[in-house]
Amino acid sequence: MSYSTTEIHPNVKRVIFTEAEIKDRVAQLGRQITNDYKDSKELVLVGILKGSFVFMSDLVRSIYLPNTNVTLEFMSISSYGAATSTSGVIRIMMDLRTNIEGKDVLIIEDIVDSGLTLNHLMDLLNHRKPNSLNTAVLLRKKEGLKVDVPVKYIGFDIPMVFIIGYGLDFAENYRELPYLGELKEECYK
Ligand code: IMP
Ligand code: MG
């Protein structure tokens, strides 16, 4: 079941990517990951809550690695309050429950803006000596980047607008929308 454009949420200015567009792109990323990790013994997919939960659930079902021990873990990090730009303050609310030493680790994140959150996270996880550490991000705001953080898999590059839906929130709302939409400016200004 998909939404027609006449049924979009009243606080959405426009749909940036439809359900079908997201589905196609996520399937492509899944195929890329499947190919890149086919010789991996242990792959830990680390979803960053809450924003990545929809992306992660679709992405993992596009990955097929019958010879790899694939496991899912979650971390919860807080960087934003109700504001729409990064505070630079990052707190670990929930850490991994597994030792990642010697394993291949793929961080799954919803969006990279300044890159501060991801940069901090990669530093932290690298100290735990994984065999490899990479990142899959659904959205990247290229003009927002303040630090040079390496992202191996990127769904879409987007302009500097505030995005909601498909797991992404504004003040904890709109995560349930099935598409990626631009939040109307009057909703946050
Ligand atoms: P960064 O540290 O500036 O890269 O911020 C990344 C985090 O900010 C993401 O994990 C999101 O939680 C949040 N974020 C940045 N831009 C958006 C957006 O357009 N919509 C929703 N959340 C966003
Ligand atoms: Mg996030």
TrEMBL record:
Cofactor: Mg(2+)
Keyword Ubl conjugation: no
Primary site of residence: cytoplasm
Record-annotated Phosphoribosyltransferase domain positions: 21-170
Catalytic activity: IMP + diphosphate = hypoxanthine + 5-phospho-alpha-D-ribose 1-diphosphate
Gene3D superfamilies reported for this sequence: 3.40.50.2020
Any one GO biological process: GMP salvage
Cellular compartments annotated: Cytoplasm
InterPro entries membership: HGPRT, Hxn_phspho_trans, PRTase-like, PRTase_dom
Pathway the protein contributes to: Purine metabolism; IMP biosynthesis via salvage pathway; IMP from hypoxanthine: step 1/1
Keyword terms, alphabetized: Cytoplasm, Glycosyltransferase, Magnesium, Metal-binding, Nucleotide-binding, Purine salvage, Transferase
GO molecular function: hypoxanthine phosphoribosyltransferase activity; magnesium ion binding; nucleotide binding
Sequence similarity: Belongs to the purine/pyrimidine phosphoribosyltransferase family.
Protein known as: Hypoxanthine phosphoribosyltransferase
Organism: Dictyostelium purpureum (Slime mold)
Lineage: Eukaryota, Amoebozoa, Evosea, Eumycetozoa, Dictyostelia
